[in-house]
Every structure is written in C-alpha cells, then in structure tokens.
Amino acid sequence: MAVSPQVEGLFDPATFTVTYVVHTGHGSECVVIDSVLDYDPKSGRTRTTSADRVVEFVNRNALKVKWILETHAHADHLSAAPYLRSKLGGQIAIGDHITEVQGKFKAIFNLEPEFRLDGSQFDVLLKEDEEFTAGDLVGKVLFVPGHTPACVAYQFEDAVFVGDTLFMPDVGTARCDFPGGDARALYASTRKILSLPDDTRLFMCHDYPPNGRPVRFETTVAEQKAHNIHVSEGISEDEFVAMRTKRDATLDMPVLMLPAVQINIRAGNLPPVEANGVAYAKIPLNLL
Description:
Blueprint: E1 6-12, E2 17-23, E3 29-33, E4 38-40, E5 45-47, H1 49-60, E6 64-69, H2 81-88, E7 91-95, H3 98-109, E8 124-126, E9 131-134, E10 137-143, E11 152-156, E12 159-161, H4 183-194, E13 201-203, E14 218-220, H5 221-227, H6 237-248, H7 257-264
Helix pairs in contact: 1-2, 4-6
C-alpha cells in the first residue's frame, strides 16, 4: 500500500538547487531527485561534495536507492546521477521527451556523430502518467513542459517534486527562453499542478531567496494559488505570457548552462574522452 513519503531536502548554495531523497523510513527503498555534481567554471574541475552529502544520508539511514530521477536536463548545474549510481545503485530516469532536447542541443553543440537522440544514455525513459515504485512508494510522472519541452514533475501521494515549473510564491516561475521553451506551455503546466488538492505539498528544485529571507523549498498548492507572483489565481494566460516574455528578455545566460546542458543530456556523463585522455565541453561562440 502506498504511503505518504518522508522527504529530505539537501540545498546546494552554489547553484541554489535542492536535491531530494524520498523514502518511507529507516531501511526503506528510496528515490533521489535532481542531484548536483559540483563544478568550478574557472578551472573546469568537478567535485562530489554535494553528492557525497546524499551518499552520507542514504547510508546513515540504511536506505536502498531504487531510482535516481531528473526532472529535466538542467541548465544551472551538472547532474551527479552517474556518480550516485556508482556509489548507491539504482536506475537513472528522466521523462521520455528528453529526446527533443537532445535533438536541439546536438545541433547547437555540434556533438559527435555517435551521440544518439533516443535517450539511451539514461537507464529508463518515463512516459506521461506512468507509475513506478520504490518499496512502499508509488510515484507518478506528470508531464509539465514549458521551461523545457521535456520537463516532468514526480508525484508521490501528497508530495509533488515540481522541477522548474514553479518556484516559491515570492519568486514565481522559471524562464522559458531556452531552446524549446514555451511560456504558454508553462502556464498550462502550472495550472495542472495547481489543480491538485490544496493541501498537496510542493517541493521546489531551486530557491532564490529575495530580500534576505531564509531558504525555503516546500510550499502547498493553496499557498501557490494565493500568493505566487506570476501564476496566482486571477492571472490570465495572456498576462503570464506577456510578463514571462518581457522578463526573460532581461535575464543573463545561466553561468553553467553551456557545460551543464551538454553533460546533462548525456545523463550526467562527461563527453567522450579524446585521444589525449581528456574530456572536453564545447563552447559555441556567437551562437546563443
């Protein structure tokens, strides 16, 4: 029988990302959502400090990782999914529309001909409304495009992990100006989430605290409907699209977008090592 999940959120202040471990208690099976591989853009070096916090929590609670989930191919941090799989086991999964994102970015980065556009870099591609289990946890895939054409949220009973579909009410919503983004699709996706029962717990992928408030990454459907500055009740689709389009035009490119996307569409694996034994991330000049 499905049970309400216990949720551990691990906040990474360098990327403002929250990695979640979802479980039902000591010794249970669990899922990990949106992990972070630390990356220094100045040196090009990676570290596993953030991911090791996940490993430590899982081991301390004798949890067994069944799934390592991605809500989308992130543009603001590198995924630590392969590292976590090597340490903890589990299968790496993402929504099946990732193939659309791979197609767009293979062209942008002019990736090697061998790079496949079928999502086979991931262990499992999850379909819209598909259900999956981890012990007593029953998860459901919610297709919520807009920020990217492949975004999904994951629902476990009364808890929904929304990815970049929503932020905390005083931050609003994610941008839609990346390749394949669509503000109208994002508006529809927010309405799908906000149509859930008012007491549904919503867990954000990021928090960017304004005005010095403490970091928060859990809210409810009721709180979002009442107070979200971009999509609260009464804001129309046309109003949202006009706001989102105007705001997106003012935003800088995320610091880690160029290395992050080309690694995350590979399920977090680095590009192929070249003849000198080194892997390289590409930087397209004067293109984006």
